[in-house]
Write a structure and sequence with these properties.
This protein has 244 residues and is of the alpha/beta class. It has 8 helices and 8 strands. The chain has a 6-stranded mixed sheet with strand order 2-1-3-5-4-6, with helices on both faces. Strands 7-8 form a two-stranded antiparallel sheet. Helix 1 packs across helix 2 and helix 7 crosses helix 8 (203-211). The longest helix has 14 residues, at 47-60. It starts with 22 loop residues before the first strand and ends in a 16-residue tail after the last strand.
């Protein structure tokens, strides 16, 4: 039901990684159609599909197995339940560690994933924080995974990133933090992303530029509220916004 996609490409050349350790990447991201229901601007010029394709390409370049869980594969009533169940499913397939990412952080690179892989395979916990209080990447061992605790985190809030970090620090886990990145949660985030991404002519980068032009969508619908581009806060999460 959830086939892995083994790929070849860049390899983790760290001398410290355990040779028999099995780590997989979990892309926890909605399908383009479902993503557009939560964030209408992502349907513009097939932006959601292009973000997913770009993310998969970066993951494939690491040479790691990966799984993509859309709303069709996710199980549970709340975001926390769906996210926790997806992680549990990857562990059930024989992996020792899972690196979770979304598809809405264009600044994410293959090197970030490999850095997280090295950290988790050395017994640590890794997180890539996002500037809005959530995170774009989390890497953890099965031994550190407590499904009940994960399901109870304050998902869809701006404090979930620090909450998860505090949880692992209290457990005396070796915490490795990646550079912070921006998520693409509303059209206005495109300006922040353009200021940090390298000026390469990729499809996603061109679309972000076009999104700032007149005539582009001016709002994003969240299941709980409509967010205008007037500085209103965005309810955040650890990965994609939930479907209700």
């Amino acid at each position: 039901m959830f086939p892995s996609v083994p790929t070849q490409g860049l390899q983790n050349t760290s001398l410290h990684s355990h040779p028999t350790y099995k780590t997989a990447v979990l892309i926890f991201a909605l399908s383009p159609g479902a993503a557009a229901e939560n964030k209408p601007f992502l349907s513009w010029n097939s932006l959601a599909a292009k973000l997913t394709a770009a993310t998969k390409k970066k993951v494939a370049a690491t040479g790691m197995d990966f799984f993509h869980f859309t709303e069709a594969e996710q199980e549970g009533h709340t975001f926390g339940e769906r996210y926790t169940n997806a992680i549990s499913e990857v562990y059930a397939r024989g992996y020792d560690a899972v690196i979770t990412i979304g598809n809405d952080s264009p600044g994410l690179q293959s090197r970030h994933i490999l850095e997280a892989k090295n950290a988790v395979e050395n017994g640590g916990f890794a997180m890539g924080p996002s500037h809005d209080g959530g995170f774009y990447l989390m890497a953890l061992q099965q031994a550190h995974f407590d499904p009940a605790a994960f399901a109870a985190f304050s998902w869809n809030t701006a404090g979930v990133g620090q909450e998860v970090l505090s949880y692992f620090r209290k457990k005396n886990a070796a915490v490795h933090t990646l550079p912070p990145l921006y998520d693409l949660d509303r059209p206005g985030d495109a300006k922040k992303l353009l200021a940090t991404l390298k000026p390469v002519l990729t499809k996603v980068l061109r679309l972000l530029t076009m999104l700032l032009k007149p005539g582009a969508p001016l709002y994003v619908y969240h299941p709980a509220q409509t967010l205008e581009l007037s500085g209103c806060p965005v309810w955040n999460k650890g990965s994609p916004l939930p479907i209700r």
